[in-house]
Amino acid sequence: MPEALRLLRREIRYSEAKTEEVNILRRIQYYDQQNEFFTRLSNHGNWMKAVVVHHLGLPSPNACQVANVEDWLHGSFNVCIPVTISVDGRRKHSGTRVLLRLPLPYRTGEEFRPGNSDEKIRCEAGIYAWLQENCPDVPIPQLYGFATSDGQTVFNSF
Predict the structure, then answer these.
(1) Same domain, 77 and 31
(2) Is the domain of 149 the same as that of 76?
(3) 24 and 66 part of one domain
(4) N or C: which end of the chain has fewer CB within 10 A?
(5) Are residues 31 and 65 in the same domain?
(6) Alpha-carbon span 116 to 20, nearest angstrom
(7) How many separate domains does the chain show?
């Protein structure tokens, strides 16, 4: 019996793959790339805390707790990492949960087109800003800030 190959959400055999109209060779790499990226992120929990602290103007990295990997949310192009705020002096925000949203570099084509992830972030932030200004009745998440790999940062007060 032929060996099945692991895709992100299922396994696939050659008999199925040959009828697909997408590049399965590329897609079978995503599972390992996702595991590698998530491992790298989970090993940088202090960096994630620092990013949240910076964008929300919190007093210290101890003011937030990053969720475990199994609680992360991910789709085709982003991973959203839940972060819980626990600031004693600001009871108003204590217990608030925010999401640190990062593009998946293996899905945005960052490897062969450096800068794609930054462009994705700028476009999505622009769409959020436009919707907030022009369509206030459309429910969208609150954008507190964003940053690109070149150091550009924009943030609102929390």
Answers:
(1) no
(2) yes
(3) no
(4) N
(5) no
(6) 26
(7) 2
pLDDT tens-digit readout, 23-69: 888 899 999 999 999 999 999 999 999 999 888 888 888 889 999 99
DSSP of 77-134: SEEEEEEEE--TT-TTTTT-EEEEEEE-HHHHTTTTSTTHHHHHHHHHHHHHHHHHHH
35 and 60 inside one domain: no
Any residues with CB less than 8 A from the CB of 148 and at least 6 apart, and which?
Answer: 118, 121, 122
Paired with 85 in beta bridges are: 64
pLDDT per residue as tens digits for the range 105-149: 999 988 889 999 999 999 999 999 899 999 999 999 888 888 898
Single-letter residue type at 140: I
Strand bridging mode 78-85 / 73-74? antiparallel
For the entire predicted model, the pTM comes to 0.84
